[in-house]
UniProtKB/TrEMBL annotation:
Its cofactor is FAD. InterPro entries: FAD-bd, FAD/NAD-bd_sf, RIFMO-like. The keyword Transmembrane applies. This is FAD-binding domain-containing protein. The chain crosses the membrane at residues 12-29. Residues 11-361 form the FAD-binding domain. It comes from the Eukaryota. Keywords: FAD, Flavoprotein, Membrane, Oxidoreductase, Transmembrane, Transmembrane helix. GO terms for molecular function: FAD binding; oxidoreductase activity, acting on paired donors, with incorporation or reduction of molecular oxygen, NAD(P)H as one donor, and incorporation of one atom of oxygen. Coiled coil: none annotated. PANTHER family: BINDING MONOOXYGENASE, PUTATIVE (JCVI)-RELATED, TRK SYSTEM POTASSIUM UPTAKE PROTEIN.
Length: 462
């Protein structure tokens, strides 16, 4: 640990201790740049939330020296098992994820699964090695940019005599890693264009007996009720994603344990062998697809969900934030140590935004290609394709349900998912080159118009 990181008071305030804030803190601390990281909740995170970890995030974890802790705890992403209703026991289909072989240049090629609560604990433990601890119960109220510094108002909720106290502080840089409802983003006046999807769901963790832990169990679809139950790295603890018009109102059912368990029982086929136990956490969840038009204004930045939110399929929410923060971390470290000019920080926004603009073009062609391959009779097809300028060639058809694997010339493979609902309407979940979920769309036109609404027309799609 350096003397620098302990003795100098932080010029950088990170707001929010989710994966995006924590990764940024770790990247800066490892570069001898002290930070203050505040978190408004008074307790550590509870719940798995987005637990899929992409290979690119594993590469980031390796660079930060935490990959072994993550891999030790993480599990492989299980196969998906779809059950027929009514009854709920007859297997309609099993979908196995294609597994790619690692190579020396590409050691991480497969998704792993680890709950965000576990991941947070791993990163926090590493942060503490640098003499920094997340300050729980400390909330950013407001942020204001001056010429060469940023003024913040902070409310300290921590218990201990006299109730909450307010602090007025000054920092050189403030980073909003404060989730989709980001105070930082709103006060900066950054746009957050996009849309909420139609689905209203519940997401949370629950103890279950009688369900095997080697697969993700799925019953029904969102036109009526859909329940997906995913095992976790903790035996007996499962994550539930459930919804549909007949499931119940997410807002009310989340706070009514009996109603929730009854809805789960019915939507999984009234099976007597499945016992729903302690509800660890359960929240309403409405997937949104939104993005800022800028990641920075002066000395204030946003990262993670504060800058973009995605729908859950593809498991990109958390991973995207990790990539943002890793991108920003080394640049901010160099500028803070006066080893690089402040203009280096312009490249953060410059690099993150074009990824999406490029994705528009790439994923549109990918979408058209995928639609061409669409099998009308299948109700779920998973396709693994190359995404990137260098299109590769198909190497394998992994299973009869349409899982395909492609590799590029560097042996990289990225994902795209094509799924149809029972009404015959398909949707495509496209993954952009940095393995971030780009969009969920119903047609090539939908994809184009969605991104045009954010970035304007690009030359290629005019
Ligand atoms: C219920 C739920 C289920 C989800 N399920 C999935 C899923 O299945 N798959 C998937 O990919 N993604 C999922 N996500 C999204 C995924 O969890 C996020 O993409 C990921 O957590 C983003 O990380 P982050 O660090 O940017 O933000 P967060 O993890 O949201 O962390 C932000 C932190 O900032 C804190 N904060 C907010 N405002 C302030 C303030 N003013 N002052 C101080 N602290 C503040 C918050 O308390 C929070 O701890 C889910 C999200 C939710 C809410």
């Amino acid at each position: 640990m350096s003397v620098f990181s302990r003795s100098k008071s932080p010029e950088i305030l990170i707001v929010g201790a989710g994966p995006a804030g924590l990764i940024l803190a770790l990247a800066l601390l490892q570069n001898d740049v002290p930070v203050r990281i505040i978190e408004k909740t008074t307790h550590p995170r509870i719940g798995q939330r987005g637990s899929g970890i992409t290979p690119r995030s594993l590469e980031v974890f390796e660079a930060l020296g935490i990959v072994n802790q993550v891999l030790k705890k993480a599990i492989n992403v299980p196969k998906v098992c779809l059950y027929k209703l009514p009854g709920g026991t007859e297997v309609l289909k099993e979908i196995e994820r294609a597994t790619l072989e690692p190579t020396p240049t590409c050691p991480y090629v497969n998704f792993r699964q680890l709950g965000q609560d576990s991941l947070d604990r791993i990163i926090q433990a590493d942060i503490q090695k640098y003499g920094c601890a997340v300050e729980l119960g400390v909330e950013l109220l407001s942020v204001e940019q001056s010429d060469d510094h940023t003024n913040v108002k902070i409310l300290n909720h921590r218990p201990g005599g006299g109730g909450p106290t307010q602090q007025d502080m000054t920092y050189k840089w403030v980073i909003g890693a404060d989730s989709a409802k980001s105070v930082v983003r709103k006060q900066l006046g950054l746009s957050f264009l996009g849309e909420a999807t139609e689905e209203n769901m519940v997401v949370g963790d629950i103890r279950i007996e009688g369900l095997s832990e080697d697969r993700i169990h799925v019953w029904g679809d969102l036109s009526s009720t859909m329940t997906a139950i995913r095992p976790s790295e903790t035996s007996g603890v499962f994550t539930i994603i459930a919804g549909g018009p007949k499931f119940g109102n997410p807002e009310t059912i989340c706070v009514d344990e009996a109603a929730l368990k009854e809805a789960l029982r019915q939507s999984t086929g009234n099976r007597s062998d499945i016992k729903f136990g302690e509800i660890i956490c359960m929240n309403p969840y409405r997937p949104q697809i939104r993005m800022v038009d800028e990641f920075r204004k002066g000395g204030i930045f946003v990262t993670g969900d504060a800058g973009h939110v995605h729908s859950p399929p593809g498991g990109q929410g958390m991973n995207t934030g990790i990539q943002d923060s890793f991108n920003l971390g080394w640049k901010l470290a160099l500028v803070a140590k006066q080893l690089a000019p402040p203009s280096l920080l312009d490249t953060y926004s410059e690099e993150r935004l074009p990824v999406v603009a490029e994705m528009l073009n790439i994923t549109t062609s990918l979408l058209k290609k995928t639609i061409k391959n669409f099998n009308d009779e299948a109700d779920l097809i998973q396709t693994i394709l190359i995404v990137g300028k260098e299109q590769g060639k198909e190497i394998d058809v992994v299973n009869p349900h349409g899982v395909r694997a492609f590799k590029d010339r560097d042996n990289h493979g990225n994902d795209a998912f094509l799924g149809s609902k029972n009404d015959g309407k398909f949707g495509v979940f496209v993954i952009r080159p940095d393995r971030v979920l780009g969009a969920r769309v119903q047609s090539p036109q939908g994809l184009e118009s969605y991104f045009q609404s954010i970035f304007g027309k690009t030359e290629e799609n005019e």
